[in-house]
Amino acid sequence: MASCPTVKSQITRGIIAACALVAAYFAYAHSQPLSYALIAVSLFAMRGCPACWVAGMCDAVKKKSAADKSPTE
Length: 73
Known about the structure:
Distance between the termini: 33 Å
Number of domains: 1
Radius of gyration: 16 Å
Number of helices: 3
Shape: elongated
Low-confidence stretches: none
Strand content: under 5%
């Protein structure tokens, strides 16, 4: 799976994608090519569809929780 290793980087990618989608929505009335380019930026930031981003986020959270658990001695 193409996920980032940290939750912070996953959240950053999600914020970038969400901002690009909102900008694409508002830019559509003025410039359709710009709107389509912003949608492409959003898909690139999410590395696929929103479901792929959510799956990557779950994977990053799982890795973080596994790293936080320390073996008891």
